[in-house]
Design a protein that fits this description.
The chain has 12 helices and 2 strands. The chain is mainly α. The radius of gyration is 20 Å and the shape is globular.
Length: about 325
């Protein structure tokens, strides 16, 4: 939607956030996060907390872009440590902004919308920095690594639109575990050096099936497997959900039922496939791969933000088709 209609604003005012699927690690963090939230100054705006976490990711992204413009090669080891810090800092602040908003009685749907919008942009920043640590330029690995994470993240928003529930994980693995895994990869790169990921996989994993593979290839395959497993859970949750059970105040004017869910799914898949095709081909021109990655990330964030806004306003999902057309023309 280009702007919010009165009907959309009414739906936004009535929006209530419903979350499930917290993991053991989420529960383990809760006492610390509850304590940390009480230490934040009351004058601090919750949206500023969200913004500070995003700025940390932007700073680490720009640093990595300076030293590894096309994601490949060796950067100073401290840059990988900076990326790890940025992930953890962003993750903690992303958990604290909502708690602080409730503590200061400033919680509202617009803050939620701002938070999710920053998250949509941050997905690409996180993946770009991981590509630098794994030393993977534009290639099949770069494309499929992005797909493995982007697919399940946007399908979580798709599931929320069609079920009114945001699921953070499956009790064992979720958003928090994913972010900490990314931070761990950065720390390992700082300790072992990026050359570790370019080493033959069989040097460290004596498995015949890995002959001819590098360690970063192996890491990407793991990312894809985890991401697609999570995505299959999102798909099953939507397919098995009975839309007739959704209360009228949550349904609003949304496009529900299996046919609408399938149509939205196809639109999302089209965007992701076009983006992956764009990132699949190696680039010889400096910064071209990064520019393509950023372009795909912006189109992805627009799609996700439109889906999130449609859910919160209880309106039909109007995909930014022009973004898909731009990716198609770019290919």
């Amino acid at each position: 939607m280009k702007y919010l209609t009165k009907r959309g604003l009414d739906g936004l005012k009535a929006y209530q956030y419903k979350a499930q699927g917290y993991t053991y690690l989420d529960n383990l963090h809760k006492p610390f996060l509850d304590w940390a939230a009480t230490k934040l100054p009351l004058w601090l705006a919750p949206n500023l907390i969200t913004l500070m976490g995003t700025i940390a990711l932007v700073a680490s992204y720009l640093t990595s872009a300076y030293y590894t413009p096309d994601f490949e090669g060796d950067a100073p080891l401290w840059t990988y440590l900076l990326s790890a810090f940025a992930v953890v800092f962003y993750t903690i602040l992303d958990c604290l902004d909502g708690k602080h908003a409730r503590r200061t009685n400033t919680s509202g749907p617009l803050g939620q919308l701002f938070d999710h919008g920053c998250d949509a942009l941050s997905v690409n920043l996180l993946l770009a920095n991981i590509a630098c640590s794994l030393s993977i330029g534009c290639s099949w690995a770069h494309a499929l690594g992005n797909l493995g994470v982007m697919f399940t993240w946007i399908l979580a928003q798709w599931e929320e639109y069609h079920t009114s529930v945001m699921k953070y994980g499956n009790q064992y693995y979720g958003v928090l575990e994913c972010n900490y895994t990314l931070a761990l990869v950065h720390v390992l790169t700082c300790i072992l050096g990026p050359a570790f990921w370019r080493s033959p996989a069989t040097k460290y994993l004596p498995i015949a099936a890995l002959e001819g593979w590098r360690m970063n290839d192996f890491a990407i395959i793991l990312m894809i497997c985890v991401g697609f497993y999570q995505a299959s859970c999102n798909i099953w949750n939507v397919w098995s959900y009975q839309t007739s059970s959704m209360p009228a105040k949550e349904r609003g004017h949304k496009q529900l039922a299996k046919g609408a869910a399938a149509a939205h799914f196809i639109i999302i898949i089209t965007l992701l496939v076009l983006g992956c095709v764009w990132l699949w081909q190696p680039c010889e021109q400096l910064y071209l791969c990064r520019a393509q990655n950023a372009g795909f990330g912006i189109a992805y964030a627009l799609m996700a933000s439109q889906l999130i806004m449609a859910h919160m306003c209880k309106e039909p999902f109007q995909a930014p088709l022009w973004a898909i057309v731009c990716l198609a023309v770019g290919n």
